[in-house]
Amino acid sequence: MLTMSASSTANTAEPPVMALEQTRQVDKALERFVDRADMPTNLREAVRYSLLNGGKRLRPVLTLLSCQAVGGDSDNAMPAAMAVELIHAFSLVHDDLPAMDDDDLRRGRPTLHIAKGEAMAILAGDMMMGLAFTALVDSDASIDAALSGRLVAELAAGNNAMIAGQVDDTLGEFDADLSDKQRLERIHTNKTGALIRAACRMGALVGLQNAPAGEASRSLDLITIYAESIGLMFQIVDDLIDVEQTAEHTGKNTGKDLDAGKLTYPGVLGVEASRVTVDTLHRQAIDALAPLGAAASPLRDLCDFLAVRTK
Ligand code: IPE
Ligand code: IPE
Ligand code: MG
Ligand code: MG
Ligand code: MG
User: Fold this and answer.
1) Ligand 1 pocket, 254 CB below 6 A?
2) Which of 89, 114, 232, 301 sits in a 20 to 30 Å window from 282, CA-based?
3) Using an 8 Å Cβ cutoff, are 300 and 223 in contact?
4) Which residues line ligand 2 (CB under 6 A)?
5) Would you call 105 helix, strand, or coil by DSSP?
6) Over the chain (311 residues), what is each successive 10-residue block's mean pLDDT?
7) Cβ–Cβ under 8 Å, residues 285 and 226
8) What is the pTM of this model?
């Protein structure tokens, strides 16, 4: 059952049932898409290895639910949902490389560079970035050229900010006058928040394609506040998971950030203050959804889960 206590660290939080259904739809759509895409067999195997089986699919589910929250048909948002998960999967493959976080476990199995070598991990990551944009522009759903252009721009912005955030996280060259807290916020907002922002905004843009301009801009602003709040919250919770959970539970190595010298919320603020920040962002996200009414209920439930997830 979903536990509502944001201070809980028990291993029991489960995604809401609604999100589980959407997760299965995303899995099926991704598998169909990858099996149809043109690429050599060994590359396809590498892409399948890292993309299918195992991810929580939170970003694509956010895309589908954001579309629904603004009154759209979430089926039309599936290409955008697949695209954001492809960028995310690429980011994880590269994040785990020896030159980056040097991890050997991801989604409960050996990382791609351990399973298939470093060259293939680099190239499969590159391929997934390209495939993301193919998924967006190849869509046979009712998405016109103007909307398609906006979706590409959103995804590119999210991708580029994610990469900038990974550079800051990995190489950490900052202006001397930035405090650790300011550095942290910049890293987390970019490396994780930006793609979550793109996920939600793309869903909303699809859902609002036929809405009057005034309503569309108000709803997009609300979804953006929600997305920015949960985006930062997501990485703070990830940092807490690194200090509080096991590899067996999460399917990825934990207890590494401190040794690797990473700037993290628990490292800079401590666990308690990190939890308080999670609670504040959680509330901000829920408040932003109020004007959207019942259509946004699944987004509320998902946000409640994201605040207490343990993997
Ligand atoms: C892990 O993301 C990487 C971060 C940005 C914190 P997820 O926790 O969503 O990983 P998967 O997709 O479920 O494997
Ligand atoms: C990863 O952050 C962010 C991206 C992949 C862009 P982390 O390095 O903390 O993610 P995990 O903990 O390895 O999943
Ligand atoms: Mg990293
Ligand atoms: Mg990592
Ligand atoms: Mg982490």
Assistant:
1) no
2) 89
3) no
4) 91-92, 95, 101, 162, 166, 191-192, 238, 252
5) strand
6) 40 76 95 97 98 94 98 96 98 98 97 98 98 89 85 98 97 90 96 98 97 96 98 98 97 95 96 98 98 97 96 95
7) yes
8) 0.95
